[in-house]
Amino acid sequence: MNSNTAPSYTLLELVKYFFKLGYSGFGGPVALVGYMHRDLVENRKWISEEEYKEGLALAQLAPGPLAAQLGIYLGFVHYRIIGATLCGLGFIIPSFIMVLLIGIAYKLFGGLPWMQAVFYGVGAAVIGIIAMSSYKLTAKSIGKFNVESFSTNWLLWILFAVGLIVTVLTQSENIFLFIGAGILYMMIKAPPTWMNGGAASIVLLSGIGFWEYENSTLLQIAIFFAKAGAFVFGSGLAIVPFLHGGVVNEYHWLNEKQFVDAVAVAMITPGPVVITVGFIGYLVAGFPGACVAALATFLPCYLFTVIPAPYFKKIAKNKSIKAFVDGITGAVVGALVGAVVIIGMRSITDLPTVLIAVAALLLLIYKKKLQEPYIILAAAIVGLIIKSGG
Fold first, then answer.
1. More confident position, 21 or 205
2. Which of 259, 262, 269, 312 is paired with 198 by a 20 to 30 Å CA distance?
3. Where are the domains of the chain?
4. What single DSSP character describes residue 373?
5. What's the CA gap between 160 and 166, in Å, rounded?
6. Of the candidates 67, 101, 70, 66, which has an alpha carbon nearest to the alpha carbon of residue 84?
7. In 3-state terms, the chain is what percent helix, strand and coil (to 5)?
8. pTM for the model
9. Are 333 and 139 in contact (CB under 8 A)?
10. CB 306 within 8 Å of CB 55
11. DSSP code of 7?
């Protein structure tokens, strides 16, 4: 498929897909980008493999939440600005409404005593879901896990391993690592023509209280969350340490328990993990705070995706640029798998959580038609039963 040809789907169909993903897509950024590949590339064939890889690379290079940026880019592929805007809104609005409702309940009842019990089961099941998604994404983007693939794509596998190891060790995703991987792969596989002419320099381009609020607080929220959206690279999980530093330590908007609950809300609701900013904004300044926090966080990522998208598409046909994108993709996918390891270390804490995660993984392997929300619901019930029994 080529973005210059007439698409085989309507804009309304694509927006409906992202709206559904927004209210039913569990598992965080790793799982969400996997769902997009499975549904839009493999099953419906609306987006080509090449277009998807370009979108994944651009989404990782630009600051902001990975899954939302990829959704915005895929909307841009055939329907340009209007497609990017509507797909982004369709993806974000359902989960925003959900966290807003949870925020209202949180203020009404003085906390969510059942949240940790639910998260106990859901967090473990999520590991199984994103492990399967990351496996499929790796097989598609780099190659199957066999000797032939390791031999043929050895450099991509090395970049994959480096991305994985660095992410696990640092518990963050490094933009310079991705750019460096792209440059290295380009230099080896398809060096640009100007290098053959003897050029000597390389330029590296281097991410209930419904209406209770104060204007000064809204301004602080806008500035802080805009920085979060503009300067935090990587998956949605990468924003958590940044948010903790500002929300708890600097501004003292939330205490530690409230912040942990906010992260739990992000994990048990579908859609982008970063939508927890809406929950935090509501606790700080009611509905206006939720809206300002969400808008300030997602507007930079929208601009960082849409503005370079037309030029990225044009230059992506160049062999050197393709190699650059392939190199970035190798490191990016490795980093995503590294994120799975990090989440797993935090969510798998005892034998019951191990069993829940393994059960979720086995169900996805052997019951291919089983939808993820049913697994999430079952895991939440199991978590409540185990904790109430304890």
1. 21
2. 312
3. 11-142+153-205+302-389
4. H
5. 10
6. 70
7. 80, 0, 20
8. 0.68
9. no
10. no
11. P
